[in-house]
Amino acid sequence: MRYQIMTAALAVTTALPFAGPAAATDLEVTHWWTSGGEAAAVAEFAKAFDETGNHWVDGAIAGSGGTARPIMISRITGGDPMGATQFNHGRQAEELVQAGLMRDLTELATRDKWAEIVQPKSLLDGCTLDGKIYCVPVNIHSWQWLWLSNAAFEKAGVPVPKNWNEYVAAAPALEKAGIIPLAVGGQPWQSSGAFDVLLTAVGGTDAFLKVYRDKDAEFAAGPEVAKVFKAADDARKMAKNTNVQDWNQATNLVISGKAGGQIMGDWAQGEFQVAGQTAGKDYTCLPGLGLNEVIATGGDAFYFPLLQDAEKSKAQEALAETLLDPKTQVAFNLKKGSLPVRGDIDLKAANDCMKKGLDILAKGSVMPWTDQLLSQDTQKQKEDLFSEFFAKPDMTVEEAQKRFADIVASAD
Amino acid sequence: MSKSERPNQLFRNLNAKVASIPMVLTALVIFVGGSAWTVLYSFTNSKLLPRLNFVGLDQYYRLWSTPRWLVSIENLLVYGVLSLVFSLVIGFILAALLDQKIRFEDTFRTIFLYPFALSFIVTGLVWQWLLNPEFGIQGVVRGLGWESFSFDPLYNSDIVIYGILIAALWQGTGLIMCLMLAGLRGIDEDIWKAARVDGIPTLKTYLFIIIPMMRPVFITALVIIAAGIVKVYDLVVAQTSGGPGIASEVPAKYVYDYMFFAQNLGQGFAASTMMLLSVVVVIVPWAYLEFGGKKRG
């Protein structure tokens, strides 16, 4: 009797490894989408991938990209690669690609005609190195948004502003009503990103490109950028009472009307959606801070580490196809609050803010973002500078600008 | 592990020597080898992956002109000096008080030592809440009616490092107290009696007789505290993540951030080499005095 059970158990254990891959290949996918809206969006990917007969093993890493990327990179360089991983396309994974640790997707891209379906074209450029394609862009995320709480402005008795300048003018009224005018969380990338947005909005697209693409240190020290620093000074005064760390906690201050607004990328929209708020009614969004309506073609992409396992490699291809599938694109981006990477799909269900974004995209007002233009090293230096600038009221605007120009001068 | 080697008797205790080979190899390959590798690559411009592309002292020039590194060093000095002094003083006073043959000594010892059972991460989170202006000490005191009371070190750039120091002392003094207590118990009762016969006041007995006799205990405590100071990292990450701004950054965090977040290994290695150097500067003269002078007596 016992003998029979043992053989049965043995049979099961030996049968499983053979039966498993044929039915479903497990593919571990790492990403840093852990807030409420993000988790709902990534579940769409998992569902669609599972429908292809494979199995999505979720490898979410909490604590935003800054925490997650080192873990992902050390797993890839340490010889324990996952099936696929999120990065922001651009230069984050540049050296991994150069070291030959990432899979070349050019063949698949040609077969599926990615060059034709991915819109705008510059998205695919972010995935391309030396003419070869290494990643699948899944969405367009733009930083240049100002999210305003209609309730907060109502309480302060001022109309909801239509651009940054009106917003700054309304700040004293908000403060008097006991509302934090601007929410900026303590994580360094938030203050640094807010400055980049101000640079685009107040300085203009050309100023942004001159500083970050051409690395013109003289220009960065000049009067035009000084105007931007003046605006950043306003921002830090408005934000001085924000005692939260994470971006979604800061967004929550806006959702609950405790803060007037937040400069944050369109991923904040997912949080408004999870909270059941309606664009236009409960909150207002101003792309480009209402001054310069552009969309940066930053965003998220999936990279596929080079694997030896043939089954898993096949599953990688299936995943790449799933990510770009029109149906998945719609489902994912609606939940995520980001814009789809295909121009040929219909987002009827899109809300007001996404429609604004789609309009700008259709007009072709796009620009590259810092992820594509700057190395992580330069980004980190920038983050150190701006987190200090926002936290230290006695740091002068001139000193900050001088240090900014130094960073631009040594940028790569 | 006694390592009483006599040079002319290489094969004495052969078994023990063979048994210690793995540890010796570990020490050589991992500690010494790893350190040498790090120092070597700190002279390169390695980014995400180590590359032997030498750039001389560039990484060090950049390091010492980075405001964040300078803030880190300043914080480490403030934190280091204060935590050394306060740990020793508070630890010794607590031990001396416990040594007065009081009642419930075991209970007090347990209470004081308990925080040491917590990791720095847990300590940091606990104190992050205690020092939070809305929920912590400030909130409670204000709730009692003292509206103007203000105590929010973690949100004030000028004093944030003291907020971290408080947490570190809370966690660490218990251990120092236990070491000191053991030292005090090791002092012969007759010394006390002799001091009393000579009419020396208690305080003076402590300062001029007992403490000098406890030198080995103080050295042990010093090494334990100093090692904790240089590597302080997790406490800062849990309590403030270096904020507000960069006001509570420490060198170990700079190393980690630049190696992994900024994908700039060269810069991280240069910073860790500076940390190693600072330890060597402290340890070598001390070790020379301590072990080199053995012949004296």
Write the layout of secondary structure elements.
The complex is a heterodimer of chains A (412) and B (297).
Chain A: H1 2-23, E1 26-31, H2 36-51, E2 55-60, H3 64-77, E3 84-88, H4 94-98, H5 106-111, H6 114-117, H7 122-125, E4 128-129, E5 132-133, E6 135-137, E7 145-149, H8 150-156, H9 164-176, E8 180-182, H10 188-203, H11 205-212, H12 217-220, H13 223-238, H14 247-255, E9 259-263, H15 268-274, E10 283-287, E11 295-296, E12 300-303, H16 310-324, H17 326-336, H18 352-363, E13 366-367, H19 370-373, H20 376-391, H21 397-409
Parallel strand pairs in A: 1-2, 1-3, 8-9, 11-13
Antiparallel strand pairs in A: 3-12, 4-5, 6-12, 7-9, 7-10
Helix pairs in contact in A: 2-17, 8-9, 10-11, 10-13, 10-20, 13-21, 20-21
Chain B: H1 14-41, H2 58-64, H3 67-98, H4 105-113, H5 120-130, H6 137-143, H7 160-185, H8 189-197, H9 202-213, H10 215-230, H11 234-239, H12 251-261, H13 265-292
Helix pairs in contact in B: 1-13, 2-13, 3-7, 3-10, 4-7, 5-7, 7-10, 12-13
Q: In this structure, how is the largest beta sheet of chain A organized?
A: 5 strands, mixed
Sheet with the most strands: spatial strand order of chain A = 2-1-3-12-6
What gyration radius of chain B follows from the Cα positions, in whole Å? 24 Å
Mean pLDDT across all amino acids of chain A: 87
Q: Considering DSSP H and I runs of 4 or more, what fraction of the residues of chain A is helical?
A: 40-55%
Helix count of chain A, per DSSP?
A: 21
Q: Briefly, what CATH class of the largest domain in chain A? A: Alpha Beta
| Strand fraction of chain A | 5-15%
How far apart are the first and last residues' alpha carbons of chain A, in Å?
71 Å
Domain tally of chain A: 2
Query: What number of domains of chain B?
Result: 2
Structural class of chain A: alpha/beta
- Give the H and E element order of chain B: HHHHHHHHHHHHH
Helix count of chain B, per DSSP?
Answer: 13
Shape of chain A: globular
What is the alpha-carbon Rg of chain A in Å? 23 Å
Examine the coordinates and then state which fold CATH places here, giving the name of the CATH topology of the largest domain in chain A.
Answer: D-Maltodextrin-Binding Protein, domain 2
Subcellular location (chain A): Periplasm
Signal peptide (chain A): 1-24
Family (chain A): Belongs to the bacterial solute-binding protein 1 family.
Main location (chain A): periplasm
